[in-house]
TrEMBL record:
Name this polypeptide is given: Uncharacterized protein
Superkingdom of source: Bacteria
Length: 75
């Protein structure tokens, strides 16, 4: 099965949270309500340096995905 790069997720235990799941490496879940990120990978020290550079653009892409999805509901 081919998964999309981003998925919207919700959970009734967190009624105000807006979760975006990034399904490609490095996999993570971000809660757009508070910008908390949970990484679903373990990183070596070398990976962490590279991740620091990439994380900001990945989070911006996740936010853009959410904005695009929400705008489609308004149409």
């Amino acid at each position: 099965m081919e998964l999309p790069k981003f998925l919207l997720a919700d959970n009734t235990d967190y009624p105000t949270a807006i979760f975006i799941v990034h399904t490609e490496y490095p996999r993570f879940v971000i809660n757009l309500e508070d910008d908390e990120v949970e990484w679903l990978e373990e990183f070596s020290p070398e990976d962490e340096a590279e991740l620091a550079e990439e994380a900001e653009s990945l989070i911006e892409a996740a936010t853009a995905f959410y904005d695009r999805e929400v705008s489609r509901y308004d149409e």
